[in-house]
Amino acid sequence: HGHNAAELRGQNLRHVIAVRIHGVQDCSPKDAPVQHIAADLLTFHIPAGDKGPVSVCLLLPGGRCHGNASLTYHSAPVCHGVLPDRTWASGRRKMEVKGSNMEFIDVVAHNHTDQKLNFTRSPAPDRVTLYYESLPSQTDSAFYSGVMLTVANHTLSCPNAVHYLPDPRFTGFTYTRLQMAPAELQVRAVQKGAELVCVVQNITHSNGSDFIRCNVRSLSDSGITVKIMYGAQIVTLQPPTAYMALLALTVIPLILIVIAAAWVYCYQRRRLTARMNKHIEKLEMDIRSDIRQGFVEMQIETSALMENVGTIPFLDYKHFAAKIFFPEGGALMTSCLGDIGQEGRRKAEGDEGCRALSRLLRERPFLTSMVHALEEQRTFTLQHKCVVASLLTVALQGDLAYLTEVMEELLRATVLRQTGSVQQKLLLRGTQSIVEKLLTNWMSVCLYGFLRVGAGVTGSPGPLRGQSPTL
Q1: Are 28 and 69 in contact, with CB atoms under 8 Å apart?
Q2: CA distances from 152 to 51, 449, 466 (A)
Q3: In this predicted model, what pLDDT tens digit does every residue of 41-96 receive, in sequence order?
Q4: What is the pLDDT of residues 338-356, one digit of tens each?
Q5: Taking the CA of residue 408 as centre, how many other CA atoms within 13 Å lie in the half-sphere pointing to its CB?
Q6: What backbone phi and psi angles, to 5 degrees, belong to 247?
Q7: Who's near 299: CB < 8 A, 6+ residues apart?
Q8: Which residues, 6 or more positions from 72, have their beta carbon under 8 angstroms from its beta carbon?
């Protein structure tokens, strides 16, 4: 990958314009521009090349190249891992980067920050090892941070990330799971203002806790505090008796607060349960009253419907027409229920738009053209046709003579259209068009008076010979 800021020493170097590098297998040499030059020192960037030796000479303005130095390209660095693989949040832990050809590394960085790390090299007989101190994190929560190594303008990653954990908390001379080594800890025993070195003997693990064992010389066993130093942090521990007393003073009030909160919660819950029971009982009483009132009203309505009809029940015209016009019920029937049988009273009501629409429906050419246009729409389903016919019947129920004339014209057009058709015998056997549904509604309106007055009576006049329907 080459190398940045390489130095070349010699004499009379002020007139050098470039460093020429020529490999054995290169067809043409590579010229590296000079970045900084002095009388006996210049710096330049070594370009990338193939593994092996190359010759180096200094290029002058006239094109001549002086000198015959050699340069050897080695394999690219490889990172094998970082030890230890975890650090505390406050940083300053000594980390070791293992790998091959580490002497070519220019920059060491973590991917959670843009800050570059200061590192040192430790040469060994067979390899060079990098050492650096971990950076402090901005948060105390755990996370992973990858280690990035830069060679010239190329970046490579180490296979394992560094696990950032919260700072260790020493309680009773124990610490957390950070895999500390004895060399990373410094322990001091403080007695009467004097600090005594506590030599760390070993670190043992038992029942999920780690224990540090150290020896310190003291004149007495009382009044000793322990100071632990790791990285840039210092933790001071009080004697166990003082710690237990402090722990008791902290825990006992918390327990009392929890008990008081639980009692208040149970008391409030009982009060809320009692209020809810009263509210439910009141709702039940209201529902019983509504059911009784509704049953009484239903009996009264049933008695009114059965009056003067013997044993044959019947509906008033409004509900009878609503069930014929809108058999499926729904919101449309509910909205039109008030308009059925109220044409004379509602004629003067409504805004100007409604009155204009009513006058427009009284124009026979417009009405028949609208029906024909709707019938020709392929997306106009049978349900839509039935709804339009029912709405027209409700709108024109106060003028049955006009409705009859419009229906006659529509029926005549339907018969002429079906003449010669294969299905002409099926005409009027179903409700396949607006005019057929109009005919059904028209017959229902005309037969209502007969069904109410003469149905079931022996010798009653027929629907065509008797009296006209009463709306």
Answers
A1: no
A2: 16, 104, 112
A3: 888 888 877 778 888 888 888 878 877 887 787 777 888 888 888 887 877 788 88
A4: 666 555 445 545 568 778 8
A5: 6
A6: -65, -40
A7: none
A8: 52, 53, 54
